[in-house]
Amino acid sequence: MPTLADSATRATVVSRIAQLSPDAAPAWGRMTAPQMLAHCADGLRMAYGDLPCAAKNVPLARLGIVKWLMLNVIPFPKGAPTARELIAHAPAAWGDERESIVLLVERFAQEAGRPMWPAHPLFGPLTGAQWGQLAWKHLDHHLRQFGV
What we know:
This protein is 50% helix and 0% strand. By secondary structure, it is mainly alpha-helical. Helix 1 packs antiparallel against helix 4 (94-111), helix 1 (7-19) packs parallel to helix 5 (128-145) and helix 2 runs antiparallel to helix 5.
């Protein structure tokens, strides 16, 4: 499974973000490209602990095998609900939003080795390795949504 802890994976994600245009139409969902970048940036802020998100009471998602399947096997479902905190703010100007998410992707290089990570609102405690996989999977899902 790709991870943002890997420099080549981060470079590929940054390259895909650079190919995205603000007027790109989504293949599914209602978000615009700028809204998607803001959403994904907030997802990374959540991973780093900069944006607290309320825990969801879905005990099944915290079971080891279910968590492993969601992180490693099952694709993100199109149109799945998201934490309110990850869609709470309007996107910044396109260039600013794109620069912000690139910096957040690159920040994973410095954060990857830290010993403690915040709990995910659905999956509960995650390691840095798991956050790296989940962050990549989330970004890949949304970049594919917009054709890059």
